[in-house]
Amino acid sequence: MKRIIPLLGLAAVGAGAYWYVQSNTSVSQTPSSTSDGVGDTESSEDFLWLEDVMGEEALKWVRERNTKTLEELTRDPRFDELKEESLKILTSKDKLVYGQIRGDFVYNFWQDADHVKGLWRRTSWESYVANEDKWDVLLDLDALAKKEGKSWVYKGSTCLKPDYDVCMLRLSDGGKDAAYVREFNVASKSFVENGFALPESKSNVDWLDADTLLVSSTFGDNAVTDSGYPRIVRMWKRGQELSATPVVFEGEKTDVSASSTVVHSKDQKHILLSRAPTFYSGVHYLLDGDKKIKLPIPEDGELTGFIADHVLVSLRSDQLGHKKGDLLAMNLEALKAGKAEPQLLFSPSESQALSSVQTSDNYVFVSYLENVQSRVLKLTPVLKGDKVTWNQDVLELPEQGTIGLVSIADDAPRMVISYEDYLTPRSLRSLNPETLESQVIQTVPARFSSDDLESKQMLASSKDGTKVPYFVIHKKGIELDGTNPTLLYGYGGFEISMKPRYSSLTGKLWLEQGGVYVVANIRGGGEFGPRWHQAALKGNRHKAFEDFIGVAEDLIAKKITSPKHLGISGGSNGGLLVGAVFTQRPDLFNGVVCMVPLLDMMRFHKLLAGASWMGEYGNPEDPQMSDYIRSYSPFHVVDKASEYPEVFFITSTKDDRVHPGHARKMAAKMESLGHKVYYYENIEGGHSASANLVQRAEQYAMQYTYLFKKLAN
């Protein structure tokens, strides 16, 4: 497991799924728009009508722009070829088959041309390791969607240990974070009649036993935090109405969320309860009968696993005699007695950062970054007297890219790991956790020609002199004359690292055509641990923007590209990044892909899950933060006099994480100020912005058509 307590919040969005729109329609044509007569700007309140997600006028505004998008892009001679190439890759049958090990089986969710919504299926461990195509289909999402008249998107499953014979399936209508949760019998391959079922909501469920669930859900009275996540944890017995079940734990309304999990340690079960006062803090309890025991775990520590009656905690600040970024093991019995007694498992250097943790009954595997490239350690608890010590082994694996800890069995020597880098296709290996012997299970064919490509890691200087690494991938021997079409991608938030990834579509549609692709590892991310993230937190948010600008300027100074040929892209928090940067330095870019973005930073905390992100950005209503946040809020900074690139805004109507009103209002305001913008809004798809593979192929085609038009012509 990676985390003990589920975390809900803003997720990274990849660099690929973008749309394109052109619109010359001014917001003044809508019945709700008026001018406040102050200079050349419109009042922010004039655009509030666009926050009405399903409002008739708002959707009319959206559809007008969507129509213009399709009309323009389908006329471009490149569009059909880009869509065809995208769909060919997305629906190929020789993709890697990622799996989750459960008992003697490996479970997988699969999509291809014949199953665009997907199949949930399983095979034996032996068949999986032998790469045999012997899958037992448990649920056909396409058939279910047709039968029930829903646009079902699979969101995962929670199964009852140790037999995994019944599962709670999460199904989203259109891709929203809110999902229906339904009990499924694996043997009969059917939903359980009159079984456990939750209506559409943001929820977490975990099995205590075959007839008992721990449930935190936003369904019901007074069940929601200000951030829109569950506030109450209930113990749900089979046959009871959910509303009549006993409440075992409550968070505060101002918390981000309250949650629970059942931790299995060989023959024992432990119920952990948690409330998250902020996005980066948690107060943790152990449920012992009717008693809740508060555990002396640092509030800003992250619970990453459980093994040998030890809780694993990574630190975000200097605590308990250890430094931020350290991974500690804390004995559960000592914690119950009010004592921390931490043991140090891993302490990263300045060039390192903890990336992920996987635990089984017997081992801990730690993935960490060394200058944004993966390394893996194995830790084995050994009982000496009444104390546990930890033996350490280093895995001998490739060191130029990203190693993923895919899945590990609880009580059997079975593990799956992955490897990839910018030019090496992903591969899956089986690993014996005891011996560390591994074998390749699957590789996929190269999706683009890389023999004439090269990947380099470079350093740029930010405004304050900080050295910022970035990766650049391009054709060997390119002319350094400033004419290379270049796409710069970034995220810079929520301690999320941008690691080397093999992107089939970016490679095929962009790199193979002579484009340059750049990934910036700016502050705000997790590439160098909590210190790198915290350097751009709240009142230091501008550091992330300055880092990104520094990388852009370095690319121009090296004559890899020039402002005429330089584009930027980012999604979610990365949408805020590119929004802030293009409004501050419009002279640097000729193309901007701004996907499912936050842009009105004075209202982000009032929209959907936005209140949960005040731990990242600060509170706009705090007098100490208000002026600072407004100073970079793209929606408030944009003006009439500046010459901006023709920005490509993208969002999704059914995104219930980042409100589509951010992109709608920004596009409308820019139009009202006389700026041409591109805009497209998928009517379904959630925060990932697509509900099936056909939609994704269209989005890639639109994105790269836009980029070629802006940067290569």
Automatic annotation (TrEMBL):
Domain of life, source organism: Bacteria
Single annotated GO MF: serine-type endopeptidase activity
Domain (Peptidase S9A N-terminal): residue spans on this chain: 43-442
Gene3D superfamilies linked to this entry: alpha/beta hydrolase (3.40.50.1820), Prolyl oligopeptidase, N-terminal domain (2.130.10.120)
Keywords annotated in UniProt: Hydrolase, Protease, Serine protease
Biological processes, Gene Ontology terms: proteolysis
UniProt xrefs under InterPro entries: AB_hydrolase_fold, Pept_S9A_N, Peptidase_S9_cat, Peptidase_S9A, Prolyl_oligopep/macrocyclase
Position of the signal peptide: none
Domain Peptidase S9 prolyl oligopeptidase catalytic: 508-712
GO cellular component term, pick one: cytosol
PANTHER family registered for this protein in UniProt: PROLYL ENDOPEPTIDASE
Protein name, per record: Prolyl oligopeptidase
Species of the source: Pseudobacteriovorax antillogorgiicola
